[in-house]
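Example complex used in Figure S2.
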Amino acid sequence: MQQSGSGAILSIRGLTKRYAGATALNNVSFTLQAGEVRAICGENGAGKSTFVKMLMGIVQPDGGIISVAGTAHEIRDALQAQSLGLGLVAQELSLAPDLSVLDNIWLGSTEVPFFHRRSSLRARAQQALATLGVGDWDLDRTVGALSIGQRQIVEIARLLARKARVLILDEPTATLSDIEIEKLMQVLRAIKARGHSIIYVSHRLGEVFELCDSVSVLRNGEHIVTKPVRELTRESLIELMLGRAFEEMYPERADASAAHHGGLRIKNLHVPGAVEDLSVTAPRGKILCFAGQLGSGATAVTRALAGLHDKATGDISIDGRTIRLGSARPILAGEVVFVTEDRAGEGIFPELPVRDNLVVSKLAICSRWGVISWRAVRKLADDLAAQVTVTCAHLGIKSGYLSGGNQQKLLFARAVGRATPAVLVMNEPTRGIDIGARAEIYRLMRRLCGEGYVLLMASSDIEEVVGMADIVVTLYRGRVVACYEGAAVRMPSILRDIANPDIPDGQVA
Amino acid sequence: MRKAILRLVPPAMGSITPLNRFRRLDGSQIRAILHAVFILALMIAALATPGFLSGPALQSLLTTISFIGCVAVGMTLVTISGNILALSLGATVGASALVVIAASNRSGLAEAIPLALMFGSMVGAVQGALIGCLRANPIIVTIATSVLIYGAAQPITGNAAFYAVYPTSDSLLNARLLGMPIEFVVFVAILLICQFLLSFTVFGRNVFMVGDSFNAARAAGLRPWATIIGAYSCAGAFSAIAGIMLALRYGRASMEFGLGYDYSAIAAVLVGGTAISGGQGSAIRTFAGMMIIGIVQVVLLLQGFRQEWQYLITGVIVLGVVLLSPPAGR
Amino acid sequence: MRLLSHNQHTRPVVLLATVFACFALFDFNQGRFLSIATLTSELDTFCTIGLVALGLGATMVIGEFDLSVPGVFGMAGCIAVLSGVEHPAMGFLLAVLAGLSAGIIQGLLIHRLRLTSIGVTLGGLLITVGVAYVLTDSASIPYDNLDVALAMNDQYAGVFTSRTLMTIAVFAIVAVLASITRIGRDVVATGSDRNAALVAGVNVGGILVGIFAFSGALSAMSGALLSYSLASASPAGLSDVLVPAATAAIIGGVSLGGGTGRPLGIAAGVLTLAAFRSGFSAIGAEPWVSDITTSVALLFVSVLDAPALAGRFRRLMHLGDPADLK
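Predicted assembly (1165 residues):
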């Protein structure tokens, strides 16, 4: 919009995609000018990743025209997108971990000759890295040995080396620590200064306001609006994304701790390389939140409590009884329930019916001498499905076909319906879930609180932390920064703690 | 996240071949129809074949599939638990046969049979422990175990067969139950036990869950390693039963007994439609697969095709069924 | 230990050197192990297994598994013997072509229909075995062109036969191709992270089909050469190749997860296996000693590579800790 005269580098008209009845993207149109940095914002499920996949030819649109530099193209595959000058840095990086940095930069490029060890290619790769301010990197290092942030920079270097005209970054900071984010921002500013166009897909508003010229908002597959960043505020952008103000989502706090005794006590929890010396007490009837960014150790705490970290050490006790770390026994005994952030990888059983997923940890109740009573299972499953409000045609369908929100509810079903209230450990409980299901899960969490459960949750979503937590423990690089309770739970102090608590702004390693 | 055995990533995300499109319409229904048509055609061919329904052909079919069937049922358990290719079950068959003959020569059948069963399940359990507890690769572990068993058997047997001192099985051999060979009755019993385990026990449900997603089972606190050890122990025990039956029928035992059983068993599992990536399937399906292969072979034999054509056509059927199975990955 | 478990590229060489040193030591300078005869028999094993291991290993590098190699191996031997009496080269070519096309068909099926390689190649195995039986009427067949058989076993420089030289040449060519051409890089990328390779623009489908074709062709070549040199072919296969080939590939640093393993590593793995076999027989041990040693070595490698080993070991150490047992 600013750099007038250079013309539109990318123009999209009426882009539409339908999946099995559901419309993922409906009639989206906009134009990207050369040299412009455009943010694409939207809640999960708004259609952002479908949009990116269609630009890169990974998914074919059902309708619409994509024009690059004034010419309409039908983008059939990644190779063609590459030759048009479109380059993607996806959430799942497209680097081969067993190859060197140099090989990865030229992997799949059409310019590489059959005998590919050419000094000219090496020099150009080196030059691309130098542009990004990392010219001192060893080109022969295996990519598997690099951190996620460094890999992302390799991926950007790959696009630069291939002379990409439009860089598309899909949630590039979702898995980065704050220092790596700052490094990435530097790199992106350097690219912007050289006149490249960037499409920046993110729901992290801070980065949008820091880096981008304009924002396109998607909601439920529709293009809502495109505006210059300076005409927007944080609040107005959130409202555009959600379609409503976000406070409505969180249920009222009702302090249930008075009615219950005991709780979970963590003393001197160590997880090598992730958490150092963490001690905290979580009373029954309250939600305790570990707030921190990726690499802060918040995730490691929850995984250690779930028995999934075999290096963890420390004294953990529930109501005064010691439980063992690194063992599945507490989960089996029903004392601890774990809700993972990686639903597809270690959450649900996708090929099994919804019914089986509901009763996973309760088969013992429905069986005698190891023999299952299917009548009891059906009854229990119906009951649990009603309690966690799973919506599906019937309980016999494969759980892999459910939406993310419904799948997450299946995981929460493991916690409800217990004779004695348990400790519910959650890791990013609402990641990738639509707004409706989110509100229902928050209500469910509050209900469990009232029943005397201990709720522990790790989250990097600060709005969620402020909206839900009774107690917040902020973590930075594996150490506890502070602990807030009740009215002291406020966004600014938490934000400061989980970003750099002791390093002044601007001074980055 | 790497899948432990082989990564079953779809080779191309975006490539749409005509068959994919065909499949996208209603893949599972089309496959079901093709299966039904195939089985119907097979039935007609079988019934139209003179001599098929006569005693000897059917009897010998039932006896033959009983031995491999026991191994296939065990293989089904292992496959559902997400660990394709237990390549050591054939060796277990041979070794159990040796154990039962050696032990019965020393102290009688009553002690020999439980001993051989225990031997089989122990061999399975050790592999299960390596695979389930350490997450060692199932293909490598079972290949190595198989080589180990064949190697260890050589000095013990001196590459010869063990013969039973007493004629063990004259009465057993000719026993019939409801007109069926005794081996087939045992096989059906094992089949039903296995199906019962899978459908009606906590262990069986755990096998499905572990096979569907090892990590999810771990996060749910299910002790996946114990389930995998259980699945391999059962597979070992079922293979031992095949070995025992072979030893009793022939009154001798040798490592030749189990040769090639692994592949036949896997073929039966696949033809039955148990998913190769785990988490789905049933013992009954494997039985169906077993019967399909067996009937095809008998029909070919009775129709005058020679043995070598049977091999070829079995291969074509297996490949055909695999081609009908749903694409890998999700 | 660290050398063994952490560096996939040096491990095969270290193992090979260790095995050689052990045998030399056990031999007490009696000249049984370090003799021409032993070396010849070792190279013989290298020929039989080597090419199959290279092909199978390549499918493992891209994260697949080619179960059909023994079938193709046997079928190729039968084709070569049946069609190569007049023109041995013609028979050899036909055999390799048959293996190549078997590989291409399987690769295409796996790629196009997105099927698992285990299922498809199991079908391929049964079919190729069936074809071999049909071609030979279920009987072993002799190869009447004894000149060729003798020529195959002619020795050069004391230990090499034309069969060994061809095998070594194939290994050398593949090693060079793998290290300096785009193909080698793309193969590793495909095995390392297939989706990543696809998004980066690698022709993953081509690589997949190509590798299965490569595996089929090499197995066929190895089978045909063996049949020529033994002057016979059998549909049941003259030698069990799947297990030793997989073993050699794994000892040679190939992991079933894909992405690791190089041709020279596989060569070292095959030589290690061959050294086991020839070494034990040279020092007068029974054949089962080598079987048992090989399988124990294979179990050892699989346990070393097992992802949960470290955690289990740590827990085992902690069991003695009384606080943990409460």
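The CA atoms of residues 33 and 282 of chain C lie 6 Å apart. The first helix of chain C runs from residue 2 to 6.
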